């Protein structure tokens, strides 16, 4: 499967559809070249590994008491450092990120995850290395 976004629920965006088509085409091109015996050199790519799902701050009655801070909104995949703002309480208090390392939040304030008690997901950036590959042509 291929998921390309962000895209609001129930909306079809032409730019997102175009990105999805390009990704699928690249995938099919790779399969064809691999099946023809093309050798692919070693490569390294950056990926983001999910570390933790973060809920909205809640009171003792399990009611949300803060919203995503404006400086975090729309900052998916951007570095979040210790002391950066996360939430803004309904009383105007800023809740900051308290972490030992830089993380990269994603799915920030996504409507589809609200009822799942997920304000965003913390990820860390990693590098993956693949050795060269080649299929033998029959």
UniProtKB/TrEMBL annotation:
Residues 44-123 form the AstE/AspA barrel-sandwich hybrid domain. Pfam families: AstE_AspA_hybrid. SUPFAM superfamilies: Zn-dependent exopeptidases. InterPro entries: AspA/AstE_fam (IPR050178), Aste_AspA_hybrid_dom (IPR007036). One of its GO terms (cellular component) is cytosol. Transmembrane segments: none annotated. GO terms for molecular function: hydrolase activity, acting on carbon-nitrogen (but not peptide) bonds, in linear amides. This is Aspartoacylase. It comes from Aptenodytes patagonicus (King penguin). The gene is ASPA.
